[in-house]
Write a structure and sequence with these properties.
The complex is a heterodimer of chains A (430) and B (175). Chain A is mostly helical. Chain A contains 16 helices and two strands. In chain B, a hairpin with a 2-residue loop joins strand 2 and strand 3. The longest helix of chain B is centred in the first third of the chain and has 31 residues. Chain B folds into two domains: 37 residues; 132 residues, Rieske [2Fe-2S] iron-sulphur domain (Rieske Iron-sulfur Protein, 3-layer Sandwich), CATH 2.102.10. The chains are: A mainly alpha (430), B alpha+beta (175). Chains A and B meet through helix 7, helix 8 and helix 12 of A and loops of B.
């Protein structure tokens, strides 16, 4: 084809041989070697890498679990117990997988909080945000499908309640529900297809994550000050600086998840799920996994079936349009004196919703859920558009290096000399 | 640019190709979608005969029909009166008690909450029966009365009455 194509030259002839035929070496060098990261990025920026590692861990542990799992209503529960008791290290695989799911959500929630607080969803990263919300949706679907597989009481009744949400849709609801279940109630047909979908969706997630990462690499990562990289002085190369920083974060994460896997593997599990599924008896208290609880609280806060379902799905869908609801050009909440507090209020509110979502929907809890619901939607529809309009943001630094110049004592004389800036010697291509 | 007649001819070819392609794709997808609907053996799930001679007045039993719980209750005089006294027009899902039973002491219901499909409590003596002394769904707090009608809570409809018939005084056939 293009005989004049400029081929990147490496010292290693094997690399050159590959590079000439498939320019994958220079791709990795560009995207994961020389890739410029804003030098002010804090540990919040490690959660994307952590999420990727967790996704891979989930896929690997899941494949090994699938080797011993039987997706049949008569055998599913027993096959999971066999994994726990008889299969070599089966208990470890299962505890990694079940707690890994919970940690995956913890990481992704922190990742989302980071994106919201520091305004990463704004121009030019809107599509990146949309892909992220899409990943979040896929994750919720996958975790719901996976929770059905052990075929305990919570599995069965969780699946029943969630699939019944679709029956709230006028006219086609009942038919749609029956089609999704493959039966008139949750049964063997349902378990079979849930297993098939639970196996395939993580690979779909993996693909969308690829797009998500590719998209962020186009304009580069945002940073705590929400200002663009202007010169090489503002950035450090991904390798080795950010890789080392991410590795430190990964060690801390590894310690945290190991502590739970080995010392409290059932902390986040529901006791009722160790009782085999019984279609004739509903547990007195159905609770979702904690990471879905805020949305469950919204569902129950509404005293109308269709209304509750619409608001619950609406609470997720609204995230897609956040970049257009926020009219402020300033990304980071560090420079938004009013919105900052509403944003923190949003996080606290989300936490409170999750808390009451795990408790019975009555009395004070129901009241908290309703106030939380109002704030949730009020934040998006009223606070976000209007605060951006009336708020006077604080003065943004001229550049990322300028942030450090201010932080360092004046007698050093203009920051740059005081801190090492390895990127200075390298030619980074933005 | 090409002349008009030629353009029309090309448009026609393009449109018919795309249409045929779309129809073909839909025809190809349909069997896959349809394969997810209930299979023939699932649809063929039959009927159940129940011996009701041993049920005492005020007692209620749960049997399994097509994978779902069915409540069969022999109602007391007070329960029948309570169910009859209600004005149907005051209800969320208006229905007279007489339209929900064949013999007024026998109440037959599908024991699945019409909100999100949990099994309501009220079958056992020790169960919570809700504010209307019928059934209470613990999942999201729906209250049903002694005729299985929704009275309070998020459920939109009364508990379903399955198709059933009395084969004789002691046997009910459900389905």
């Amino acid at each position: 084809m293009d005989k004049n194509r400029k081929v990147h030259q490496f010292k290693n002839p094997v690399l050159n041989w590959i590079e000439f035929r498939l320019p994958i070496i220079s791709y990795f060098k560009k995207e994961y070697g020389d890739y410029p990261m804003p030098k002010n990025c804090n540990y919040f920026w490690s959660f994307g890498a952590l999420a990727t590692i967790t996704l891979v861990t989930m896929i690997v542990s899941g494949i090994f679990l699938a080797m011993n799992y039987t997706p049949h209503t008569d055998m599913a529960f027993d096959s999971v117990e066999r994994i726990m008791r008889d299969v070599n290290y089966g208990w470890l695989m299962r505890y990694i997988h079940s707690n890994g799911a919970a940690f995956f959500f913890i990481i992704v929630y922190i990742h989302i909080v980071r994106a919201m607080y520091f305004g990463s969803y704004k121009y030019p990263r809107e599509l990146n945000w949309i892909l992220g919300v899409f990943i979040f949706l896929l994750m919720m679907a996958t975790s719901f499908l996976g929770y059905t597989l052990p075929w305990g009481q919570m599995s069965y009744w969780g699946a029943t309640v969630i699939t019944n949400l679709f029956s709230a849709i006028p006219f086609i609801g009942e038919g749609l529900k029956t089609w999704l279940l493959g039966d008139y109630n949750v049964g063997n047909a349902t378990l079979n297809r849930f297993f098939a979908l639970h196996y395939v969706l993580p690979f779909v997630i993996f693909g969308v994550v690829g797009l998500h990462v590719a998209a962020v690499h186009v304009h580069g990562s945002n940073n705590p000050d929400g200002i663009d990289i202007k010169t090489n002085n503002d950035s450090v190369n991904f390798f080795p600086y950010m890789l080392i920083k991410d590795t430190v974060a990964m060690c801390a994460f590894g310690i945290a998840i190991s502590a739970v896997i080995f010392f409290g593997p059932n902390l986040m599990a529901e006791v009722d799920n160790y009782i085999p599924a019984d279609p004739l008896v509903t547990p007195a208290h159905i609770v979702p996994n904690w990471y879905l609880a805020p949305f469950y609280a919204i569902l129950r806060a509404v005293p109308d079936k269709l209304g509750g379902v619409l608001l619950m799905f609406g609470a997720i869908v609204i995230l897609f349009v956040l970049p257009w609801l926020d009219r402020s050009k300033v990304r980071s909440c560090n420079y938004r004196p009013i919105y900052k507090w509403f944003m923190m209020g949003f996080f606290v509110n989300f936490f409170a919703l999750g808390y009451v979502g795990m408790l019975p929907a009555e009395g004070l809890y129901l009241l908290i859920a309703r106030v939380g619901l109002l704030y949730y939607f009020g934040f998006f529809f009223i606070i976000t558009p209007f605060v951006g309009w009336i708020e006077k943001p604080s003065k943004l630094p001229l550049s990322i290096s300028d942030v450090y110049a201010k932080n360092i004592a004046p007698n050093i004389g203009g920051g740059e000399k005081g801190i090492p800036s390895p990127a200075m010697q390298k030619d980074t291509n933005l | 640019m090409a002349k008009k007649p030629k353009n029309k001819r090309r448009d026609f070819l393009q449109l018919s190709t795309v249409t045929l392609g779309a129809v073909g794709t839909a025809a190809f997808i349909w069997p896959f979608l349809k394969s997810m609907s209930p299979a023939e053996d699932t649809l063929a799930a039959g009927s159940t005969e129940v011996d009701i001679s041993a049920i005492e007045e005020g007692q209620s039993i749960t049997i399994k029909w097509r994978g779902k719980p069915v409540f069969i209750k022999k109602r007391t005089k007070e329960e029948i009166d309570a169910a009859k006294m209600v004005q149907a027009s005051d209800l969320r899902d208006p229905q007279d008690d007489a339209d929900r039973v064949q013999k007024e002491e026998w109440l037959v219901l599908v024991g699945v909450c019409t909100h999100l499909g949990c099994v309501p409590l009220g079958q056992k003596v020790s169960d919570m029966k809700g504010e209307y002394d019928g059934w209470y769904c613990p999942c999201h707090g729906s209250h049903y009365d002694t005729s299985g009608r929704i009275r309070k809570g998020p459920a939109p409809k009364n508990l379903d009455v399955p198709p059933y018939s009395f084969l004789n005084d002691n046997t009910i056939k459900i389905g």
